[in-house]
Design a protein that fits this description.
The protein contains two helices and ten strands. The chain is mainly beta.
């Protein structure tokens, strides 16, 4: 009896593990052309830094698909479609947490202010679900007709040179 329960438990565990994995679609109802990734950094300490993703998107039926997320280089970004004069464009951006000023008075009594620190943003607890090469990204999308989420691997992501924005001149 114990063996049967044990085997049943392992079987259910195996099925649950398989369903949690994300399967990639090889032929999506669209094409993605000229994917690129560009890092940027602000000129001032509080400006932060981040990355931008852009690609041409050619759906067979734009009304039938809703783009969702982009998984690239350990980051999960919200993916958006922008309609331009020449067609559709996929865009996603990520910005690291800003470092704010450290000289803020947090208490009127200076003796009670010692040791106070500004609150830090919570880390992203979502696990990155894919193993990708530096020139790969995965996009998730929903097909309206069946309501299911699909994943497509974008290959050939080119990295553009980093953009360094100038800082403000000191007077």
């Amino acid at each position: 009896m114990k063996k049967t329960i044990y085997i049943l438990f392992i079987g259910l565990l195996g099925i649950a593990a398989c369903t949690s994995q994300k399967s990639l679609v090889s032929e999506p109802p669209f094409t993605v052309d000229s994917p690129s990734l560009q890092y940027w950094s602000g000129g001032m300490e509080r400006s932060g830094r981040g990355m931008n993703f852009a690609a041409r998107w050619n759906p067979f039926d734009p009304e039938a698909i809703v783009v969702d997320s982009l998984f690239v280089r350990g980051r999960i970004m919200k993916l958006e479609v922008v309609e331009t004069e020449t067609g559709f464009k996929l865009e996603a951006s990520y910005k690291d947490a800003q470092t704010g000023p450290t000289d803020i008075i947090m208490h009127a009594d200076s003796t009670k202010e010692v040791g106070n620190q500004l609150p830090r943003p919570l880390p992203d607890t979502r696990k990155f679900p894919f193993k990708l090469n530096p020139d790969e990204a995965v996009m998730s999308y929903l097909v309206k007709s069946d309501g299911k989420k699909y994943y497509y691997k974008i290959r050939g992501v080119k990295e553009k040179p980093t953009t360094l924005y100038p800082g403000r001149q000191k007077n």
